[in-house]
């Protein structure tokens, strides 16, 4: 492995935003997730739960409801009163339509996917028709007093159940009138009791309405007679969300205490026809309020204000492999938020509304394996760049020499020239940046800091020239041979400045020659999302990792996979490697050791030594600690190519600086948790 | 009145009291024949009158004191009200400024002083850049809609609604520190709370200390070189 001096960085004060809405699309096995800061993410369940798309947030956008309609179109509505359609190819908001009802609290698509019902602050339910390129207001149902907090369509599309404050109503869609009015009990608390907010409703096909309210009960009502069928007091704090499975035999609810409960429709006696709803499984995976739940065919999905997405497969629905039934927790994004200027020893941290530039500290002493060295010069916070405007920063990068910083929001690209002399920092904005018609999804500086690569829509990559005193000019636009509608989200440039690799949303990787500005070749298609790309500085081999944890090495000059890569595919990767939860987000190389590849994901970093043999499933994958005990000769017998270190977790970024030092950016979970909003108190005996 | 009557009786008694000892030496029989009441009546009446006068005077004094107090209080309230009303005055003058104050030209000097003060305040407020045009009449306030964004107001109200229902009174919220320190408290090896040391304690002092240290070091370097 070699001796490294590790710069253990824990001053990246990153706090992810809480999850507010979830929308599961069973057809395409995708999950759309909206956060409290207005950001949107799309997870692809088929590609090993990889976060394949992300739309950056906006200061004024607060999404209260998300839904999929008309196939793969995603609509969102929020407290600003607008209904927006998201363009998942260009990764931005396509258009917004004002609902004219005040803040919108809930939205649902009808079972056929052609109509959208929207519940507004003024008490009206408005119906919109989904047309091929826009939505159009159709009509409004009868207005009632009190804001409409939640709504649900009957599976036949003829009735809508609406939950408001202290009330439930059932509307007939054709006539627009309310045909049933049900009063929901408040908390029995004496003279003055707080009003009961019905946070979510669901309408089942047999006419049962399921409601969850702020008192903490889940109730089942008969919509025809308006009577209460069953009531289940689930918690002492509010039950905030509810989701029903497609077969309508299982309901998942989320509470303010962070607990998620499952209700199942079970027969009263073995073999009898009559069945009752029974609360079966409690899960406590969150510490804060669970504000959104979804029910897929095999799993319960919950997202909370602690910014964690938890996917809990249900044992009775999962067949086959053991790893499919494992619990998944996602806290950190599947994108890189840290850039490193290796030569200048600088780190650039990307926050939603500003960037921070830090210089790494230094130490004078040396030590042996496992020692903690004293810091002689502390890390210095050099610069904080605030982005103007309400939009959040989408991507950022710093050049290797540390003199150029570029970042982009949804509409503009910003470029800054940084001067570092003897401890003083000055930054100057480059004013005439070419106005690109499309937004930038990924930015990368070339190795010699003369060009900036901007990943854009429709598979295009713009090459901008960085001029010395502080200017910028558009050089070329590279487009793939096969027309693609998806945006490029990953870039990799070679060290000699000849090659550029770009991966797009359709999982196609194109390699361009920068000498002639033409497409050079395309990597053979693999049906899984690409999570990281890098080009080796010496051999110009492109190393690709996919979301199902496969690793490929493609030789660019020869236009084919390398022999080592074929060997890996034939041998197969170790089971322990394939069963990792989180994708690899960054790949880098050691110039002194051409056979080494350094990769990392959230819980480990690994040095792949191509000269050593590959492990098979019988040998343990994490054998580094065991190898340390053995002598040099014995080590050679047992060593294999994957040298994994799990000492530093959770990792946001790992990179190799010169002179044998490694920089490791960690973000301890407890540091995030202490910055979250206040949780509900849990009384425990004896405290 | 009862008191004066009682006092009268007492005075009578006192008046009557010294009489018998004085006349006792001479001839008590003579005094019994005399009608000493006349003399005593006169004196008693005089005494009663003075007494009544005194009482009336004290009552008057009390009443006057009360009146004074009340008057002072009224003035204080008026003063406060005037102070509060002053900005409105200012704004009224602001809005009525284009109409040239021909009426005000004939004001007394006191109002003129007031106006000067108002104008000073005008200028100060203008410098602050308040762009709201407010007319106060009765109990309502008329404001330009352009200055107040309706959607953001609705949004704010909606957010307040959510905030009050999730974090307001009645919800059982606690701090992150307390919540996460439960595990430390209950574990077999007791540990400190998660945020045992608050990093923001004494922040300014620490900053001053680092600045001083830097300056000291540089001074030392300069002096040593």
Our measurement of the CA-to-CA distance between the termini of chain B, rounded to an integer number of angstroms, reads 100 Å
User: Could you tell me the number of beta strands of chain B?
Assistant: 2
What does the average pLDDT of chain B come to? Answer: 72
Biggest interface, residues from each chain: A-B, 33 and 26 residues
Low-confidence stretches of chain B: 17-27, 98-113, 118-131
> Cα distance, first to last residue of chain A?
48 Å
- Helical fraction of chain B equals over 70%
Spatial order of the strands forming the largest sheet of chain A? 2-3-4-5
**Unreliable runs of chain A:** none
The number of helical elements of chain B comes to 8
- On the 0 to 100 scale, the average pLDDT of chain A is 91
Summary of the model, kept short:
By secondary structure, chain A is mostly beta strands. Chain A has a four-stranded antiparallel β-sheet with strand order 2-3-4-5, with no helix packed on it. In chain A, strands 6-7-8-9 form a four-stranded antiparallel β-sheet, with no helix packed on it. In chain A, strands 10-11-12-13 form a four-stranded antiparallel β-sheet, with no helix packed on it. In chain B, helix 1 runs antiparallel to helix 4 (36-96).
Write the layout of secondary structure elements.
The complex is a heterodimer of chains A (687) and B (225).
Chain A: E1 5-9, E2 19-25, E3 30-35, E4 40-44, E5 50-55, E6 63-69, E7 73-78, E8 82-87, E9 92-98, E10 104-109, E11 115-120, E12 125-130, E13 135-140, E14 150-153, E15 159-163, E16 167-172, E17 178-183, E18 198-203, E19 208-213, E20 217-222, E21 227-233, E22 239-244, E23 250-255, E24 259-267, E25 275-284, E26 290-295, E27 299-304, E28 309-313, E29 328-330, E30 338-341, E31 346-350, E32 354-359, E33 380-386, E34 395-398, E35 404-408, E36 413-421, E37 424-429, E38 442-445, E39 451-455, E40 461-467, E41 471-478, E42 488-493, E43 499-504, E44 509-513, E45 518-522, E46 530-535, E47 541-546, E48 551-555, E49 560-561, H1 563-571, H2 575-578, E50 586-590, E51 593-600, E52 605-609, H3 624-629, H4 632-638, E53 642-645, E54 651-657, E55 661-666, H5 669-673
Parallel strand pairs in A: 1-55
Antiparallel strand pairs in A: 2-3, 3-4, 4-5, 6-7, 7-8, 8-9, 10-11, 11-12, 12-13, 14-15, 15-16, 16-17, 18-19, 19-20, 20-21, 22-23, 23-24, 24-25, 26-27, 27-28, 28-29, 30-31, 31-32, 32-33, 34-35, 35-36, 36-37, 38-39, 39-40, 40-41, 42-43, 43-44, 44-45, 46-47, 47-48, 48-49, 50-51, 51-52, 52-53, 54-55
Chain B: H1 2-16, H2 19-26, H3 28-33, H4 36-96, H5 109-128, E1 135-137, E2 140-142, H6 150-167, H7 176-186, H8 203-224
Antiparallel strand pairs in B: 1-2
Helix pairs in contact in B: 1-4, 4-5
